[in-house]
Amino acid sequence: MKLFCLSAAIAFFAVTSASAEQLPAPEGEVLLTVSGAIENETADGVVSLDLAQLQALPEQVFTTSTIWTETPVVFTGVSLRDVLDHAGVEATKIKAVALNDYIVEIPLDGVSDQAPIIAYLMDGEQMSPRDKGPLWIVYPYDADPDYRTEVVYSRSIWQLNRIVAVK
Questions:
Q1: Residue 126: which of 82, 76, 83, 90 has the closest Cα?
Q2: Cα distances (Å, whole numbers) of residue 139 to 60, 62, 147, 167
Q3: Residue 129: inside a domain, yes or no?
Q4: Tens-place pLDDT, residues 126-153
Q5: Is 6 within the bounds of a domain?
């Protein structure tokens, strides 16, 4: 019986570890860490991403008005969906966390390939923490009235630096 249990444990470990992927470690300053219910990792059970790694994912660009800016802004970034897929997120929601530990929950059933994005440029410039950076979850608010609600605005977290995937 002990041999059977040991064999079953080895088989389980082989199957579960085969699906996980070791991702390259960031070479620059880490801007975003993804943890929680994830399959992949860069090290220590998390996915850490620098600007170059974010920029290596498919780029999304749109111009939109926001309730926080005086004029429409061009946002450049990566879709939240692509970041979650890159990390191998297996969850129903995420907790997005800002530099000041402010947290918002975003259910994943409302995340598409196009929206929201994690913006790393605003009008072609990197954002400092004073300008809502270095990362900001934004939606194309002008593209759809469904993006102009209090709920969506509340999910538009700036100074993003961590994502925790929750089952």
A1: 76
A2: 11, 9, 7, 24
A3: yes
A4: 999 999 999 999 999 999 999 999 999 9
A5: no
